[in-house]
Write a structure and sequence with these properties.
single chain, globular
């Protein structure tokens, strides 16, 4: 999301490139269209972020101060995603298809 915002301001060519990316493009367009992330999307992001932060700090890094820094930044990241990223509603058609 941050990359797309920065590319949009700096380079229309890079912005179009990231929007046409198979993995990131649909997510960015969904975020823009819905004006936020769905709660399901937030939970997925938090699960992945928590997994990576714990793996990095507990398995990869041996330096205790660096471990604490990574864990602290992970907590800050989770708080930002949960409380500051707008929560969008699910599409009505997606809810109907799940029944």
């Amino acid at each position: 999301m941050l990359s797309a915002a920065l590319y949009a301001k700096s380079s229309p060519k890079l912005y179009q490139w990231i929007l046409n990316n198979k993995i990131l493009g649909p997510r960015i367009l969904n975020y823009k269209r819905r004006k936020g992330m769905t709660q399901k999307g937030k939970l997925g992001v938090l699960a992945l972020m928590t997994t990576m932060v714990l793996f990095s700090s507990l398995v990869v890094v041996r330096n205790i101060p660096l471990r604490l820094t990574i864990l602290g930044l992970g907590v800050v990241g989770c708080v930002v995603v949960w409380f500051f990223v707008p929560t969008a509603k699910e599409d009505i058609e997606n809810i109907d298809n799940q029944d």
